[in-house]
């Protein structure tokens, strides 16, 4: 991908000298961008954003100032957009509960220590350096909680990670252009107990949790006094969902078991097992030949494939629709994604499936100056286009397209709020699928280059595909720094095995 290659030129992360807390500091009220409720009242200047005394934030931009693009979310779509925005035209403000982008295709590898966590996390300041240095550009560690499209304001609440000595606070950010790139949430289909007992695999902290739990179970099962049943339960790793993420994670686990557990946990090596539960066929979006290959490869590596539908999840066992009880020590849930509660709460027209409805230019047509990209958005039925799959390649291409669209709007003088009426938008967004890849463990992978489920194209499986998979992702990792980390992690794992310390 051209943009991945161009990202290697990113300059070093500059010091994030701007204090994020400054927005509530009265000493900053003199800055044109920052208004506190108190400050606005004191200066007598009208504050277009209504605030209670404890509310503050970034007020609207003035006509002589750069227009402001507010980006909600720091995933594939939001980061690609920020990378492409021309910061001589716009100020960029990103609101997200995490200050980095996750390189999700390699996340499963971090759960068992094939890769380290930091190798797949790219700080936003390295993706768009203006965010840490330009006077009107900021990153705010916060969740967006509400949207007021009439006033062009987003309401936010800081993220404090449950720290008891920090109170959360709310603030508002005015936008000229708003890009919603909030991603999606793991689907649980309303099955009881999933949220409480299963671990999802979407964020780096999920991978940390999985690795710690896996190592804890391994160590406890080797301790004196444990019953045979409990030992088997603790060492039973169950993965629900046979899509690419579930399959890749199962493959990584089986590699970990076959190489590292056998060497390091010799006493319990015969007790540890992986079960992959899928309601239909695994990897249903892949070519049928590749699906068969994946099934036989996983089975050879010791992964038990079970066709079933989960009815209930309890703390130590799951219950399938046919009444079968499956005790587990580690449960990873990976059954696809759906719209987040925030997206569901937005009062805008939705696409089939409940995502934010967009037109061919990625605009949310019912509201001015609002765009939506990535997993949270889908074409409206009226466009006649299908909702695109929840994939990084869709999200990053939409981010790239929208950056270029916004740059041309800004250069044509339409950057400020409510100014795009007479601007020519150019060609619509067109998506061409480049193919899919997935690893299945044991140095084997699948590469499906068909342009769609029914389309024609090359499909490969085996070691060569694994080599293509690794090379492709190594070149797509965002920065040189992380590319270096990934290469070194792979080499270290190959030579010395995975790191099994539970930190
Ligand atoms: C383990 C895994 C492996 C994957 N592998 C592949 C692959 O190999 N190939 C592929 O094409 N796709 C893959 N995907 C899918 C791909 O990662 C997603 O399609 C992609 O991340 C979507 O990008 P996005 O920007 O829309 O959402 P995300 O990347 O999910 O980003 C959403 C952002 O919004 C933020 N956010 C959420 N709520 C709020 C809020 N209220 N306020 C502010 N910010 C908020 C989040 O913190 C996050 O920063 C994988 C996904 C996973 C989980």
Automatic annotation (TrEMBL):
<dbReference type="GO" id="GO:0050136">
    <property type="term" value="F:NADH dehydrogenase (quinone) (non-electrogenic) activity"/>
</dbReference>
<keyword id="KW-0285">Flavoprotein</keyword>
<keyword id="KW-0496">Mitochondrion</keyword>
<dbReference type="Pfam" id="PF07992">
    <property type="entry name" value="Pyr_redox_2"/>
</dbReference>
<keyword id="KW-0521">NADP</keyword>
<comment type="similarity">
    <text>Belongs to the NADH dehydrogenase family.</text>
</comment>
<keyword id="KW-0472">Membrane</keyword>
<comment type="function">
    <text>Alternative NADH-ubiquinone oxidoreductase which catalyzes the oxidation of mitochondrial NADH does not translocate protons across the inner mitochondrial membrane.</text>
</comment>
<keyword id="KW-0560">Oxidoreductase</keyword>
<dbReference type="Pfam" id="PF22366">
    <property type="entry name" value="NDH2_C"/>
</dbReference>
<dbReference type="GO" id="GO:0005777">
    <property type="term" value="C:peroxisome"/>
</dbReference>
<keyword id="KW-0809">Transit peptide</keyword>
<feature type="domain" description="External alternative NADH-ubiquinone oxidoreductase-like C-terminal">
    <location>
        <begin position="433"/>
        <end position="499"/>
    </location>
</feature>
<dbReference type="InterPro" id="IPR054585">
    <property type="entry name" value="NDH2-like_C"/>
</dbReference>
<dbReference type="InterPro" id="IPR023753">
    <property type="entry name" value="FAD/NAD-binding_dom"/>
</dbReference>
<keyword id="KW-0999">Mitochondrion inner membrane</keyword>
<keyword id="KW-0576">Peroxisome</keyword>
<keyword id="KW-0520">NAD</keyword>
<dbReference type="GO" id="GO:0005743">
    <property type="term" value="C:mitochondrial inner membrane"/>
</dbReference>
<dbReference type="InterPro" id="IPR036188">
    <property type="entry name" value="FAD/NAD-bd_sf"/>
</dbReference>
<keyword id="KW-0274">FAD</keyword>
<protein>
    <recommendedName>
        <fullName>NADH:ubiquinone reductase (non-electrogenic)</fullName>
        <ecNumber>1.6.5.9</ecNumber>
    </recommendedName>
</protein>
<dbReference type="InterPro" id="IPR045024">
    <property type="entry name" value="NDH-2"/>
</dbReference>
<feature type="domain" description="FAD/NAD(P)-binding">
    <location>
        <begin position="68"/>
        <end position="399"/>
    </location>
</feature>
<feature type="region of interest" description="Disordered">
    <location>
        <begin position="39"/>
        <end position="65"/>
    </location>
</feature>
